[in-house]
User: What shape does this take?
Amino acid sequence: MRGWGFREALKYPLLWPLYGLCIADLSWLTFSATRTLLFNPDVTLDHNNNPEPWQAYREGRYRLWAGNYDYSKLKCKAPIFKDNDVIPVENGTD
Assistant: This one.
């Protein structure tokens, strides 16, 4: 029975690109997941000291590309949740 070891993989050079692509995909997956875990504001690892991490980005903007739009004039229309109460926010016009 053939094995999946390194020596067995060296016997079939036509499969080397497949192995290379699998290794590259796993490397990209690891990099992407680590980057999201460490730098995305939507992900939090410490819920005890920061129970509502999304409130820090209420007025700030987290975006990949903003274009020419001025986000400083835009007001957040989402309600504020504190202690199971909803504090309504004024409905501003754009």
Notes: The chain has two helices and two strands.
